[in-house]
Amino acid sequence: MPTEDTALREPQARTWRRDFAPYERCVPLARREVEQALARWGCTEEEVATAALVTGELAANAVRHAHVPGRPFTVALTVGDGGCVVEVTDPVTAPPTAVTPRPDDERGRGLLLVEASSVAFGYRSCPGGGKTVWAALAAQARAVCGERTWLPERLTAAALRCGTGEPAEPADVERELRCTLEAHTTGDHHAFVRELPGPDTGAVWTRWIRGHPPTTLLTLPDCPATSPTPCADFADHPGAHSWHLTTNDPKSPHTSPE
Ligand SMILES: [Zn+2]
Ligand SMILES: [Zn+2]
């Protein structure tokens, strides 16, 4: 089955598409692949879940109402700043039927669910026959954590000596710390402290829990995600990549400088 993933080639448009055989068993497979693609792009759990739900309903519709033996259905994703568009293309040109389900009819609910989950929903005929049913899903606003504190004197001195070679200049060490991860209620806060010289050397970070000063420095590799712009957080960080996050008003530091 052909796969297309333009995430690395085209920095502005993140798109993904894949063909699936027109069978019921491929519906959960399509959902899973959509989940994986969106998670890879740093979408939130809620966005991934909504897109997977919509994909499942549109794919089930394609399999049940537009089945042509030997002709696949295609699932495509486009993710931009405005949100995610899910498209499912099948080989039957007739428009998707909007049915009014009976209360006990689970199958008829598909398109109503899609409509309820999306900000816009429609279909278009394909030039060579068949149709594409699409649903646009809104992007969720994601706030950066923004929790603030100060780097203790002892760690400032240690940060100057991190890495190989000459000690850094005091101006190279960030003392006024601000957690740059997606807003979170569990886990440590993390803040960037200092860039390390040289390529692929990562950066110095620190972490803390609210109400306590940082006690340790960490040398962490950079997050490898670079589309649409390089992610400013460390590798395997929790939450969305930095380009998804919107800055909130800075909070007051919880501790004062020493
Ligand atoms: Zn935080
Ligand atoms: Zn990242």
What does this structure look like?
By secondary structure, the chain is of the alpha+beta class. It folds into two domains: 3-138, Heat Shock Protein 90 (2-Layer Sandwich); 142-246, no CATH class. 20% of the residues lie in helices and 26% in strands. It contains four helices and 13 strands. The strands form four sheets. A six-stranded antiparallel sheet has the order 1-2-3-4-6-5, covered by helices on one side. α1 packs antiparallel against α2 and α2 (45-65) runs antiparallel to α3 (110-117). The longest helix has 21 residues, at 45-65. Mean pLDDT is 84; it is low at 1-12 and 249-258. The protein binds zinc ion (2 copies). One zinc ion (ZN) binds at residues 223, 225, 231, 233, 237, 241. Pfam families: HATPase_c_2.
Features:
Anti-sigma-factor_SerPK, kinase, six-stranded antiparallel beta sheet, alpha+beta, 13 strands, disordered N terminus, elongated, three-stranded antiparallel beta sheet, binds zinc ion
Concise structural overview:
With 258 residues, the chain is of the alpha+beta class.
Give the helices and strands as they follow along the chain. EEHHEEHEEEEHEEEEE
CATH class division of the largest domain: Alpha Beta
Q: State the major sheet.
A: 6 strands, antiparallel
Termini Cα gap:
61 Å
Number of helices in the DSSP assignment: 4
**Uncertain residue ranges:** 1-12, 249-258
Number of domains: 2
Relevant CATH superfamily of the largest domain = Histidine kinase-like ATPase, C-terminal domain
* Rg on CA atoms, Å: 24 Å
* Strand tally: 13
CATH topology of the largest domain, what is it called? Answer: Heat Shock Protein 90
Strand order of the largest sheet: 1-2-3-4-6-5
Structural class, from secondary structure content? alpha+beta
Give the cofactors and ligands: zinc ion
Query: On the 0-100 scale, what is the average pLDDT?
Result: 84
